[in-house]
């Protein structure tokens, strides 16, 4: 009976975690995804396209995170190291905090105020996150100098493909 209960418990909790590499690794964004709005730290709305346009001509790393996410917090030291070791790459941070207050508290608590931060006021489920198959955080996406997706799916800053993709783009 204990084994059956254990298997049932694992099955229930296992269904809630859907950390799976998407079947299709996309290389561009849909028009709907690009129209998705986020809020900057001052509460001003900005679209994903406007963010990408601000970084056109540069390699861009998008880091999806939240202060409530244990995996995100565990990844912070390596993510900061990745940023430090790649001064020619722009880094932006897309927050999945549950509230505007939580967004601001996390920026303070985790010393993120000196970074380029945006918050999905629409929540986790929105046109952009649905399009990129966001099923886990942290998540990292690398955008090339022409705003195309160069590395679609990474869930650790230690993924060796992140650095190799950056190196290839900066050659």
UniProtKB/TrEMBL annotation:
Query: Which InterPro entries does this one have?
Result: Thioredoxin-like_fold, Thioredoxin-like_sf, Thioredoxin_domain, Thioredoxin_ResA/DsbE_sf
Q: Does the keyword tRNA processing apply?
A: no
Which Pfam family is an annotated match for this chain, by its short name? Thioredoxin_8
Presence of keyword Ligase: no
Q: Where in the cell is it found?
A: Cell envelope
Record PROSITE patterns? PROKAR_LIPOPROTEIN, THIOREDOXIN_2
List cellular component terms (GO): cell envelope
Q: Which domain of life is it from?
A: Bacteria
Q: Which UniProt keywords apply?
A: Cytochrome c-type biogenesis, Disulfide bond, Redox-active center
Any one Gene Ontology biological process term?
cytochrome complex assembly
Where is the Thioredoxin domain positioned along the sequence?
27-171
Q: What is this protein called?
A: Thiol-disulfide oxidoreductase ResA
Q: Which organism is it from?
A: Chryseobacterium potabilaquae
């Amino acid at each position: 009976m204990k084994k059956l209960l254990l298997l049932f418990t694992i099955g229930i909790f296992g269904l809630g975690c859907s950390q799976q590499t998407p079947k299709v690794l996309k290389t561009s964004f849909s028009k709907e995804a690009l129209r998705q709005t986020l809020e900057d730290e001052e509460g001003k709305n900005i679209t994903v396209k406007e963010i990408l346009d601000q970084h056109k001509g540069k390699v861009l790393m998008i880091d999806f995170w939240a202060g409530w996410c244990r995996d995100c917090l565990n990844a912070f030291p390596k993510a900061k190291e990745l940023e430090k070791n790649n001064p020619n790459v722009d880094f932006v941070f897309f927050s999945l905090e549950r509230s505007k207050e939580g967004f601001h508290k996390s920026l303070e608590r985790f010393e993120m105020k000196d970074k380029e931060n945006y918050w999905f006021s629409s929540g986790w489920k929105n046109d952009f996150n649905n399009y990129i198959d966001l099923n886990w955080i942290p998540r990292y996406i690398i955008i090339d100098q022409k705003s195309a997706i160069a590395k679609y799916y990474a869930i650790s800053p230690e993924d060796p493909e992140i650095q190799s993709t950056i190196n290839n783009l900066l050659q």
